[in-house]
């Protein structure tokens, strides 16, 4: 990385420039996520709730905006990490310039009507249902009727051979060794003995990258990154179905709706985020492993950081792009660039900045793709502890843990291929810090004296260890989700921006526009727009201490606040306490 001063707008000096410190360029805000893989139990609740909210409709039956993969494994779609095959992400030219791996503009133009580098439906999986009519209406006989699987696409009987969750709990099995793109890059010793180490779950959504290849690859300019919060969306009106974005995304988190002819992707539940609510996958996560918050970054340094020559330097380069919200220079620069103070305050309390930059225990997924992803992961330590416990050792003692991390080089190499472009040093440090936290806090819980040597061994202080422990183990709802409301939501700036339509607002869409059904909120079940006001009503309803009035005699259990007896759930009671038909009891409507 160089210290060449970037082009700066007039007024940059208002941010202040300390002697020898690099000037701050344009400050932008990004809503980001961290997932603690130590807590993921592979229940797939996040996948199911996301499916119900966003892709439970025709044309996207095979689509999972959120999916949970078992590692090692092939993933969804199959072997999506094999960029030699799928040509996703960026490549750095000898002159330092980044170009999409799939090719520049001329190559995309030459294949615009027939893009051959895309996963097929077999790589995702052919969605199916079951022949329930046969099961329900079969006549009496000696054999029990069976509901055979039928393709949702062709409606023909089919044999189920693959799905988005096919590798579940098969991590490390010998049949997967030759299929996992990461294991292919590792040595023979790893391939032969990996089944003796561990498996873990890896939830995945769109990375909402700082340098997204999907946006650069789109010929029609339909994909865009929102300036106010960094969420990457698809403009359904501009999308022409070229599907270059599917190829360009190295994580394969852009999908094609074969019914509408448009591309779709994870929206980071932005109608919820705009009113300060977490994404649906975060809200429903059983293990409470997801964290949401705001990160401030220098937009003028993104291209430079993504273009560093050595792939192993990409992790550190991305960290350098993040700005410290407690720095007065950064706060002044953010104010200069129009970022509201409440966003800067939220960035100061952000669990994302704390886990990624302050404690340095969260890592990006495949930084070597040079997209600068903004969904980060805390690598799992539990398998190391389990290995110690099974061998009769104390799985919480610092010396044992540090020694086990040194001995289990194969998992660290695999984790490094996932999170640090093969560099094992950052992964080793993260696991040591997580191990130090366990040992340090156990002494406190047992009433023993604090051992600062445990913290200092991993470059931290006891206070930092305790702060990290609170965030990872004890954080409450409003500490895990620090999401400022969007511009225009609060009274202080209402009317600053116009209401933004949903990127999936179309006939047969996920119910976010006037033609569908709103899946959440007071208007559930009725045509309505995905406005800030509707999601504000949902937030008020979910956080209210009082019972909310029923609407149209219907009850939506998803939004029930748990107070009282909701109208519509049971027949009304009569004067004598017995249940009556609806409309007959006192006070019924």
Structural notes for this entry:
With 589 residues, this protein is of the alpha+beta class. It has a domain at 23-27 and 288-480: Alpha-Beta Plaits. It is built from 25 helices and 14 strands. It has helices at residues 45-54, 83-86, 105-110, 121-124, 132-137, 174-177, 181-185, 188-193, 213-217, 244-248, 270-273, 280-283, 302-306, 314-321, 328-336, 341-348, 351-358, 382-390, 398-407, 409-419, 424-445, 452-456, 462-474, 477-480, 532-543, and strands spanning 27-36, 67-71, 90-92, 98-100, 128-130, 149-151, 200-204, 223-225, 232-234, 254-257, 262-265, 290-298, 363-364, 375-378. It has a 4-stranded mixed β-sheet with strand order 12-1-14-13. A two-stranded antiparallel sheet has the order 2-7. Strand 3 and strand 4 (98-100) form a beta hairpin. It is globular.
CATH domain fold name of the domain at 23-27 and 288-480: Alpha-Beta Plaits
Derived structural class: alpha+beta
- Could you report the average pLDDT, rounded to the nearest whole number? 83
Q: Number of DSSP strands?
A: 14
Quaternary organisation of the protein chains? single chain
Biggest sheet: strands, sense, closure? 4 strands, mixed
The Cα radius of gyration reads 26 Å
Indicate the CATH class of the domain at 23-27 and 288-480: Alpha Beta
Strand content: 5-15%
Distance between the termini: 70 Å
Q: How does CATH name the architecture of the domain at 23-27 and 288-480?
A: 2-Layer Sandwich
Order of the strands making up the biggest sheet: 12-1-14-13
Fraction of residues in helices?
25-40%
Low-confidence stretches: 1-19, 491-501, 511-529, 581-589
Shape: globular
Alpha plus pi helix count: 25
């Amino acid at each position: 990385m160089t210290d060449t001063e970037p082009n700066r707008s007039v007024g940059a000096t208002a941010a202040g420039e300390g002697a020898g410190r690099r000037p701050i360029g344009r400050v932008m805000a990004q809503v980001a996520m961290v997932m603690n893989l130590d807590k993921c139990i592979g229940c797939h609740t996040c996948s199911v709730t996301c499916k119900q909210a966003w892709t439970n409709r025709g044309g996207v039956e095979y689509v999972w905006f959120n999916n949970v993969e078992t590692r090692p494994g092939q993933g969804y779609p199959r072997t999506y990490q094999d960029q030699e095959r799928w040509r996703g992400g960026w490549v750095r030219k000898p002159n330092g310039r980044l170009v999409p791996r799939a090719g520049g503009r001329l190559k995309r133009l030459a294949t615009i009507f027939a893009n051959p580098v895309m996963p097929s439906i077999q790589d995702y999986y052919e969605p199916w249902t079951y022949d329930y009519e046969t099961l329900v209406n079969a006549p009496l006989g000696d054999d029990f009727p069976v509901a055979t699987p039928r393709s949702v696409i062709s409606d023909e009987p089919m044999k189920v051979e693959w799905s988005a969750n096919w590798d579940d709990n098969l991590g490390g099995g010998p049949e997967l060794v030759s299929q996992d793109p990461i294991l292919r890059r590792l040595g023979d010793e790893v391939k032969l003995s990996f089944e003796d180490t561990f498996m873990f779950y890896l939830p995945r959504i769109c990375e909402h990258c700082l340098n997204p290849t999907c946006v650069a690859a789109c010929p029609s300019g339909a994909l865009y990154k929102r300036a106010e919060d960094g969420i990457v969306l698809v403009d359904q009106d501009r999308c022409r179905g070229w599907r270059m974005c599917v190829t360009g995304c190295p994580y394969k988190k852009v999908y094609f709706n074969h019914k509408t002819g448009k591309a779709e992707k994870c929206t980071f539940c932005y109608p919820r985020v705009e009113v300060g609510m977490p994404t649906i996958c975060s809200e429903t996560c059983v293990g409470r492993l997801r964290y949401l918050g705001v990160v401030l970054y220098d937009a003028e340094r993104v291209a430079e950081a993504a273009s560093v020559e050595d792939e192993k330097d990409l992790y550190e380069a991305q960290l350098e792009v993040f700005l410290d919200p407690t720095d007065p220079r950064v706060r002044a620069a953010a104010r200069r660039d129009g970022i509201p103070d409440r966003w800067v305050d939220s960035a100061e309390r952000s669990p994302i900045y704390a886990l990624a930059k302050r404690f340095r225990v969260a890592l990006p997924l495949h930084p070597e793709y040079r997209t600068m992803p903004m969904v980060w992961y805390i690598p799992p330590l539990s398998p190391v502890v389990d290995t110690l416990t099974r061998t009769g050792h104390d799985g919480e003692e610092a010396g044992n843990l540090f020694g086990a991390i040194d001995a289990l080089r194969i998992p660290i190499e695999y984790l490094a291929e996932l999170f640090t472009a093969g560099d094992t040093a950052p992964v080793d440090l993260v696991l040591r810090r997580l191990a130090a936290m366990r040992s340090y806090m156990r002494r406190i819980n047992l009433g023993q004296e604090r051992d600062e040597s445990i913290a200092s061994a991993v470059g931290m202080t006891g206070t930092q260890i305790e702060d990290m422990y609170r965030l990872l183990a004890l954080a409450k709802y409003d500490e895990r989700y620090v999401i400022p409301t969007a511009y225009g939501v609060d009274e202080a700036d209402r009317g600053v921006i116009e209401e933004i339509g949903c990127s999936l607002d179309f006939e047969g869409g996920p119910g976010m526009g006037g033609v569908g059904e709103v899946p959440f909120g007071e208007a559930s079940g009725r045509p309505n727009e995905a406005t800030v006001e509707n999601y504000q009503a949902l937030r008020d309803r979910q956080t209210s201490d009082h019972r909310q009035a029923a609407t149209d005699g219907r009850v939506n259990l998803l939004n029930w606040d748990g107070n009282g007896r909701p109208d519509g759930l049971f027949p009304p009671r009569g004067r004598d306490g017995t249940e009556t038909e609806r409309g007959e009891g006192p006070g019924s409507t």
